[in-house]
Amino acid sequence: xxxxxxxxxxxxxxxxxxxxxxxxxxxxxxxxxxxxxxxxxxxxxxxxxxxxxxxxxxxxxxxxxxxxxxxxxxxxxxxxxxxxxxxxxxxxxxxxxxxxxxxxxxxxxxxxxxxxxxxxxxxxxxxxxxxxxxxxxxxxxxxxxxxxxxxxxxxxxxxxxxxxxxxxxxxxxxxxxxxxxxxxxxxxxxxxxxxxxxxxxxxxxxxxxxxxxxxxxxxxxxxxxxxxxxxxx
Length: 233
Ligand SMILES: [Cu+2]
Prior knowledge:
The chain is mostly beta strands. The protein has two helices and 17 strands. 9% of the residues lie in helices and 41% in strands. The radius of gyration is 22 Å and the shape is globular. Copper (II) ion binds next to loops. Copper (II) ion binds at residues 97, 100, 125, 162, 164-165, 168.
C-alpha cells in the first residue's frame, strides 16, 4: 500500500513538472581581450574641420578598456529555431552622424526594421552601405535632409561608410531574432529570455572576427557566460 502511495506521488510530481510552462533565462556576461589593451589610434580630420573637430576622433575598430573589456562585440545565437523575433520598436532606431562620426559605432536593429540616419551637422554626408543580403545604399545626405529612413528587410551584417569623410565608418547588425546583443563599453551583454537548452553562442568583433562557445541555459534562472578573445597577432 505504501509503495503504491509513493508511486502515485511520483506520478503526480512528474505530471506537475511536465505541465509547468517552459521557462526562459538570460545569458549574461562580459567580453574581454586576452592581450594588453591596444592604444587608441587618433584619426586626423582632413575635411570640414570646423564641424568635424567638435569631437575628438579615434579609430574604433577595436575599443578595449583598461580592464580589458571590449565594447561593440555582437553576441548572438546563430542556430536558434525556438527564438522569438526581435520586436520592431515603435520609434525607429537612429544612427546619428554627429561631428563627422557615426553614433553608435555598432548598432542592432530587427530584420524588417527601419534605421533613421540623422544629419544635424549642417554639412554634406553620404551614407554608403556594404550589405551581404540587403540592397546596397549609396546616398548623399545634404545638410537640409536631417533624417533619412533606411529599411533593412533581411538579416545581415552591414558595414557603413561616409564617402565624404573617409574616416567615418560603423556597422549595422540586422538581427533575425531576439537573441542578439551588443556589448556596452564595460564589455557586458545580455541575451534576453533564452529558452532552456544547450546553444552555440557566437561573438563577433569587427577586427577580431568570430569565436564560439557552448552554453547551457538551465530550466530556470540566468546563466553567466564570460568570453575572452585571444590576442590579435
Ligand atoms: Cu560624412
